[in-house]
Amino acid sequence: MKSTFLKIGVILVSILCLGLGSEAFAKSPPISMLIQVKGKIEYSKNGTKWKKVRRNKFLFEGYHVRTGEDGSAQLINQATNMSRDVGPDTEFKVTQHGGELISGHLSKPSKASGGLSASLNKRFAKAQRYTTVRRSVDKKKKMKLKLIKSVTLSDAHPDLVWQGMGSDISYRVHIDGTPHMVAPVNDKIVRFKVSGLSAGEHKFSVDLIKDGNTIYKAKKSSELNWLGGDSLAAFNKGLQLVKSSAPGDDFLVANYLEEQGMTVAAMDMYRKYFTENADDIDMYPMLIKSYHDLKLADLKKMEAVKYNQMLDEDG
């Protein structure tokens, strides 16, 4: 009897481990961020293997940072938005309180200018769920299209996106009841540029068309918020604050766009950032999360596989 229960226990543990995958070992959100990086600066996940810091860098608990004789930066605590100056020939360890000095100079904390990423920690923790690669079983399923429930667009960021369903499928987009046809694409993403909307809330849905016949008709509409007037002015003011706080940092721009519900624009900016900064493995789950939010299942799975491979190679 005992051996039977033992076998069952082993099977259950195995199933649990397969289901959780990398999610079981997901890391906590970043503690701090280095900005205004100058000169020679390096970071290490374990205090032994060091990598160069060439731009703004998110830091996790336990990471080590050291500067050369010409190195300097500002260390921002994500939770408190307090800033500390990092001097030359300095080494510190990242802790819950920001930085534990090992040698050199860290100034006393002072209030940082601007809020760099107010809600990043919660969204990063959520993003970890989507890095798990689960085995899929090939089954014939009824053709169905999933859409994001709510998205914000503007004149500067007018694209709706959804998953490509095949080169023989076209689409009928309904915006406030008005239909628009979209031709088939041989791509994992279909884009439709929206125009002519007034500021405020609208409804949209997408039907699937094959050989002139509707093979899937959306049962529910999603929400589309078009920015204009005071809302657009407030959005642009916040965007300029982010850009002035960390000039040239596409990741923080993407983070702000995501905060504002501009999920498509955020995805595009994340894609640009990680194309140009392929070594920033730590924050890659944010790109995967954007695919999840936009219901781009194929890209989400593909990038989750890539992310886990990068972790294996980096380890």
Walk me through what this model shows.
This protein has 315 residues and is of the alpha+beta class. The protein has two domains: 81 residues, no CATH class; 193 residues, Immunoglobulin-like (Sandwich). The chain contains seven helices and 18 strands. The longest helix has 19 residues. The N terminus is likely disordered.
Provide a brief overview of the structure.
This protein is an alpha+beta fold and 315 residues long. The protein is built from 7 helices and 18 strands. The protein folds into 2 domains: 32-112, no CATH class; 115-135 and 144-315, Sandwich (Immunoglobulin-like).
> What is the fold named in CATH at topology level of the largest domain?
Immunoglobulin-like
How many individual β-strands?
Answer: 18
Helices, by number, come to 7
CATH superfamily of the largest domain: Immunoglobulins
Global morphology: elongated
